[in-house]
Amino acid sequence: MRISALDVTKRFGDFVALDGVNLEVRSGELLALLGPSGSGKTTLLRIIAGLDWPDDGEVQFDGEDALPRAVGERHVGFVFQHYALFRHMTVFENVAFGLRARPRRFRPNEQEIRRRVASLLDLVQLGWLADRHPNQLSGGQRQRIALARALATEPRVLLLDEPFGSLDAKVRKELRRWLRKLHTEIHVTSIFVTHDQEEAMDVADRIVVMDKGRIEQTGTPQQVYDHPVTSFVHEFIGESITLPVVVAGGDVRFQGQPTGLDPQGVADGAATLFARPFHMTILPAPGGDALQGSIRRVHGIGPARRIEVALGSEPAETIIEVDAPRVQQWQVGQLVRLRPEHYRLFPKPD
Amino acid sequence: MTDAELAGQASARERQPARRAAIRHDADPWWVQWSIIAVAVLFLGSFIVLPLVVVFAQAFSKGAAAYLAALRDPDTLAAIRLTLVVAAISVTSNLLFGLIAAWAIAKFEFAGKNLLVTLIEIPFSVSPVIAGLVFVLLFGLQGYFGPWLKAHDIAIIFALPGIALATIFVTFPFVVRELIPLMQEQGSEEEEAALALGASGLRTFMRVTLPNVKWALLYGVLLCNARAMGEFGAVSVVSGHVRGETNTMPLHVEMLYDGFQLQAAFAVASLLALLALVTLVVKTVLEARMSQE
Question: Comparing C-alpha atoms, which of A14, A15, A9 is closest to residue A37?
Fold first, then answer.
């Protein structure tokens, strides 16, 4: 099912949780809403689910206005960060709840319910836990049961709020892979909220990066990583080197010195240069225009070697960390030049 | 390391706590321990157990036949009936009010919420006599609604409605107090999950909310009931003490006692004492269940 959010705005008192958000979720895709806490991602998910209502804007399911419908009428499956399993029911009854809650004429008979629950428990590979209570399960098991429960009603869309947020690192990684696999099997339109960029990169078909109630960028993991369109996205996703620079007369200057870099169409004034640590070439100094500095520290074992370079002079010294090829020998104190092979300039916000 | 060495280490480890325990024993001499325990037991015995024994001893002082005769007295039976009716009314209404109030406070955000929480506790800090007087001021002959009630021939004060109102007021906090912290701790996620799965509001309440708070609810009801049956002050003000009509059990006990019918007074009192004992047992069971969940 296709989901559209049109100009969705939501305020909690003075706090603007969502500020005119427009989003298009394609049918059958697995989409990640990624952002720091307070970016509005969970609020957007809850509004799509029908657990919250926007102050302004519209939510459409397949082009049809969804807002007049309550959460129970939208046929969504919702998975909560803290599982929200019914604590006094067995695993079986938890999964069967949605089927039993149906109006009588749509309710499957007991035999059919048993069959459906059993097959869902098989799908999440936890059939042997059917008679347990939620407090007898591990976190990872609980979340898989929560997922089975959400899938029981055959939802048209699956919404997951930080589904792996309260699990430990190892289980999280396993479940991630498992969710990816499950999605390729059942192919239901799915949106999941996360603050973990690695998780989003790993699982999602497309990523929506959010900050302060706005969408910063939408794209495949590759696009978002390789071509961040705002400074926030560049910094939030992957490792970044940031340098305060000034664009003046078609030249990029760092601490007053010309760097020979192209300003990429950024207007004169203060700007920030972003680059990945592995996109910096280290050259022996002195030489032509480039970022000049001296090596402070050399560390790292295995294939990667990291070098800390102090750029500029005291007190405005900026220390950045770059990847360096192992074949070359670097000494602490050595003067070097750095040339970013790929970089992005963004004007500094006022 | 050989097995023998391991065993040796293990037994050394076992010996250690024993020695430490012995040292602690020396630190608190036996007579200190025993006198503290003795004071506690003596206090408990003279203030709790002894009165309880006296109640039953007095009740049966003229034999079991006299005991049963005292309970079969029509006025006593009327008092028991009234007490049960009042308790049933006040427990039922406080169960409903309590659930609604706790739900509102725990699951919604609204202006004046803190004020409401404070107001709910008022019956605990107000003397029951004052509570009774408030109802006399409102519904008594000289009260605000007195003349109107008189004109329409509705009796509240010195009748069942007044007694029930006073009891409801006094016992109001018991159920709410148990529910609010539990409901707040549980949050609304399970309800949201149930609604998202297509359950109706009623089904969500019956299948998710209620089972999640059932032990706390029963606990509140139990305490509410014990207090409702035992309430004296507030009821005394609004009842009018009409024998066989507006006397509840505690009032009836007082009346018998004032009339020098000691044995009868204690016979009725023994029923209230029995109620207290049963309440205590059920309370212990409920507490065990709640700590299990």
Answer: A15
